[in-house]
Design goal:
The structure holds two protein chains of two kinds. By secondary structure, chain A is an alpha+beta fold. Chain A contains eight helices and seven strands; from the N terminus they run H-H-H-E-E-H-H-E-H-H-E-E-H-E-E. Chain B is elongated, with a radius of gyration of 37 Å. The chains are: A alpha+beta, B mainly alpha. Chains A and B meet through strand 2, helix 4, helix 5, helix 6 and helix 7 of A and helix 1, helix 4 and strand 1 of B.
């Protein structure tokens, strides 16, 4: 298969697909080309879209490829779809932040950090698919452990969990804090993982 | 700050830690050296204010109030001089909690920014993200009113439920009982109860029997404990 044809075929597949396509899936469909090659082809396609002034790009989200319209066109697209995306509530975001940076984590720990009951918000996040149960912990009662899901990465447009903003030094009303606080217990948030 | 300035963010505190951080911020206090007496007063004022509005104060807020008062008390106790300098500051645990919570609050704000940016990208093939959210932000009084109207319109119409009045009186049952006993016959209680199984009738039969026994118009007999109760006419 010629390079140009390969490029066009991948574009065709992504154009028709109604859900994100994994590099593995694309590789299988294209007769076993390497994922690294797919990444280069996608980069090439995006470059040509940019040069031609197109309104969309192929993005890699949570490890999968999909076409997205550019933010500039969102006012019109929004009208077409006649839907307003509903933002997560502050308690949902706080809980997600804790789970994303400290997960897998159990409910008592989340509640200790937020200082309030987390029953309802965990249920909502599970229903929305933004978190998943990752197993049970070793502490008393073997509580359920929560972690972020693939939908979490998709929701925030992340390739992987390590693309989350870095854990910034905490400012205390403008004064920098003396020491850097470790990122996590080392469970899930590791640079370059 | 005056009490009224609490109103601005009344419903937006995520919990007691959030409230404390807010107080520390508006009062420009040092989170690493919290004036505990001052913050406790402010905090309790806020709780009092919430209650004056008839808002239900969540239990977590009250637990924190107790914690603040305990720390305040510990701070007032004279601390031994000299070799006990190593003793931890009573505020230590609270400060650590506040710092940790503040960090996640900041991270949540970053996620909020990412969410907003991401909302402007529309994927091909996918119309929307899964619905369902606990956020109350998009609701106004009109929407609430309309939802209420719809719910009322869709609610099944109330069908009148008629209750027929059972016209049974104690007098009636007493007369019936006395007539049955005419001719010196004995009646078993179970037999009597079988005649009219309606609940109100059963109750009234019991009351009638007790009333007649009290007036000494019948005698109640039982051959052995837990045996059949017999209702007998008065001899003679």
């Amino acid at each position: 298969m010629r390079d140009e044809e390969l490029r066009q075929a991948i574009e065709a597949l992504l154009f028709v697909a109604t859900s994100p396509l994994s590099p593995q899936k694309l590789s299988d469909l294209m007769g076993g080309i390497k994922p690294g090659q797919i990444q280069r082809i996608v980069e090439g396609l995006n470059l040509s879209y940019q040069n031609e002034g197109r309104s969309f790009r192929i993005q890699e989200i949570a490890g999968d490829y999909q076409f997205f319209t550019l933010p500039h066109f969102s006012p019109w697209v929004e009208k077409l779809l006649a839907e307003r995306k509903r933002r997560l509530s502050p308690q949902a975001l706080e809980t997600l932040a804790i789970i994303a940076y400290r997960g897998p984590i159990n409910r008592p720990r989340i509640e200790a950090i937020r200082g309030v009951n987390a029953d309802g918000v965990l249920k909502t996040l599970l229903e929305r698919g933004l978190i998943r149960i990752k197993g049970r912990g070793n502490s008393v009662g073997r509580p359920l452990l929560y972690g972020t899901s693939k939908s979490f990465l998709q929701y925030f447009g992340l390739k992987r969990l390590s693309d989350l903003p870095r854990w910034k030094e905490l400012s205390n009303n403008g004064q920098p804090k003396a020491e850097q606080v470790p990122l996590s217990d080392g469970h899930s948030f590791q640079e370059g993982s | 700050m005056g009490e009224l300035s609490y109103q601005v963010r009344l419903d937006s505190f995520q919990g007691p830690l959030d409230l404390l951080l807010h107080l520390i911020k508006v009062e420009e206090l040092d989170i690493y050296d919290i004036p505990i007496a001052k913050i406790t007063d402010q905090y309790l004022n806020y709780i009092k204010f919430m209650r004056s509005l008839d808002l239900q104060v969540a239990g977590e807020f009250l637990v924190m109030a107790a914690t603040l008062l305990r720390i305040k008390a510990e701070m007032l106790l004279p601390r031994p001089l000299g070799d006990d300098l190593e003793e931890p500051d009573p505020r230590q645990e609270l400060t650590e909690m506040l710092i940790e919570y503040k960090r996640f609050k900041e991270l949540a704000e970053q996620l909020r920014g990412m969410e907003g940016e991401r909302f402007r990208f529309y994927p091909r093939g996918e119309v929307a993200y899964p619905p369902g959210d606990d956020s109350p932000q998009e609701i106004n009084s009109f929407l609430l009113w309309r939802a209420c109207r719809e719910a009322l319109d869709n609610a099944p119409k109330a069908t009148p439920h008629t209750i027929s009045l059972d016209k049974v009186t104690i007098r009636e049952k007493m007369d019936l009982l006395l007539r049955s006993l005419e001719g010196g016959r004995e009646i078993r209680l179970t037999e009597l109860l079988r005649q009219d199984p309606r609940r109100i009738a059963l109750v009234l039969i019991f009351v009638a029997i007790l009333e007649l026994a009290k007036r000494r118009q019948v005698i109640l007999r039982q051959e052995a404990p837990f045996d059949e109760i017999l209702i007998c006419p008065l001899p003679g």
